[in-house]
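Sequence in, structure out. Go.
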Amino acid sequence: MTFGPGGVGADALYHNRVMASPPSAPTDSSRPADHSWGSFSDSPPWVLNDRTPTWRRAADGLRRKQARDLPSLYRAPKLPPLRRALTVVRVLGSAVVLWAIKERGRPESKTGISRRIRLAAEKLGPTYIKLAQIISAGDGVFPAELVSECKKCRDQVPAVSYQEVVAVLEGELNKPIHKVFRSFEPVPLAAASIAQVHRAVLLDGTAVVVKVQRPGIDELVRKDLRVLAWLAPFLVGRIPVSALANPPALVELFAETIVEELDFHLEGDNMLDVAEIMVKLKQTGFVIPRPHPELVNTRMMVMEELKGFKFDDVAGMTDAGVNTHDVIRTGMIGFLEGAFVHGVFHGDLHGGNLLVLPDGRTGLLDFGITGRLTDTEKQAFMKMMMTATMNDVTGQVEALRDLGALPADTDVREVIDVIGLDGPPVDPTKMSPDEMIGELQRIIKALLGYGARMPKPLMLYVKNLIFIDGAIATLAPDLDLFGEVTYIATHFFTKHGATFANELGVDQKDWRMDLDGIKAGFGVDPTEMNSLSHNELQERRALINKRLADESPLKKLRG
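Output:
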C-alpha cells in the first residue's frame, strides 16, 4: 500500500533468486565505515556510525529483568489463568483421550499421539505452534515421530490483518504510519508465530523490511506459559513422547526461549553483537542485516533488506559461481567459533533464516533466538570441543555436567562406567534390532536416573548441528566428514588454541587430535574406514532406521 509517490515493485522478493557474476571484494576505501566493527553488507541503506543506538542501551537491563521474571512463568502455579486453561485442557484432553481409545498400546501409538498433539497445537494458536516449531528442529532430542509431525507446523501460521499491523506500528511509533513510511505492503513476506515481516519504503525512498509483532502475543504467551507450567506435572509418565525433555523441563526450556522473542530491542542487540563478533573472529563470510539506527521498538523493527539465494537453491548458487562446499565450511566454523570463543551464536538456524548472497557470503536473518553463554557455560563448550577431538570421554561428560545437562554433583566416573562410554566402539549397523532397542532403552533409563536434562544453550547448539547436518546433505553430499572434522579441529586449535588453554587452565601442547576416536563417534570401525562421505553416512542411518522400524521389536518398545 503506497502512501505517497514511489512504492515497491511486487517482483522484488526478500528471498529472491539473484543472478550475478563471481564477486570481487570491495577495496578498503570503498567499504562502509561500519565494516570496521560489524559484518554488514557492502551497499548499505544507512551506516551505523554508533555501535550503541539509543534503542540498544536498554538491552542488558531487559535481559536481567527477563531472567528475574522467568521462574514465575515456568513454575507450576496453584491456579492458571482459568479461561485459557479450560481451552487448553479441552483441546489437549480431547487429543489424549482419542489417542488412548484408538492408538494406545498399538504399534502406531507414538505416531498417533504425536499427530494429535500437533493438531491440538494448531488449534490452540501461536504459542503452541511456536512450541511445535522448536520441537520440529529437535531431531535426536525429541522422539522422531513427534519431530516429524511438528515439522508440519512450520509454515501454517495465518497472518494477522493489515489493519492490526497498522495498529501495532502506530502504537509503537506514536504517530500515523504515513509519517514514517512512503509505502507499506499489506501482504506479509512471511508470517510466523510471534511476528510477521512486511516490505516497505521509508519517506526518503529507502526500501526496508519491517518485522511487526502479533497484537496481544506478549500477554497470550505469558498466559499460555502459566497454563503449561500448571499442566506439565500431570503429564509426566502419561504420554510416550517425553524422552529426556520431560514436560516440566520442556516448559522451562520453552519459556527461556520464547520470552526472549517478545522484545525486539533484544533482537536488534543480538544482531549487532553477532555482527561485531564476526569481525573480531575475522569471519568475512557472514552478512547481518543492519537494524535501523532509530526505528527499533518493543514490537516493531525496521531493518535492511538482503537479497540472495534460498539456502537450498543449489542450482542457483552453482550458476552464480558459488562454491557450496565453502558455504558449508564457513557456516560450521562461524557457528562454532561464535559459541566456543565468544559465547554468542545464532540460535535458530534453518532454511528460512539463511540466504546465500551472490558473492557466496551467507546472510543471517531472524535473531529472536540467540544463544548466550555464561563464562562457565562457554568454558564447558570449549572443553566439550577440545575433549571430543581428543576422544577424552571423561572430559566430555564433565563438560556436559558443567553445561547443566547433568546435576552438578554427578559422579562422572560412575556415569561413564554404567553407560559404558569408554568401551570399544560399537557399529550400530552390525547390531540386531533387538540389540539396538535394548541399548537405547538402557542408556535412556540410565540418563534419566542421573537427572539428565536438556539446558537451553545445549538444545540450541544441538539443534543447529542437526540443521548443518541437513545442509551438508543438500549443499555438499560428497563431503568427506573425517577430513572436514580434521580441518575444522586443526583450524580451531591453530587459531584459538592459546585462548582455549588459558580459559581451561591446560597446556596447549597437550592437545592431540584422535581421529580414530572421532571415527568411533560416527559408529564406524577406525580400522575399516578411512573416509566417510555424508551420502555414506545417510545410507548407514537409513539402515539403522530400517532395523529400528522392524515391527517385532517396536511392539516390545511401545507395548
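Check: The chain has 21 helices and twelve strands. Residues 62-156+216-262 form one domain.
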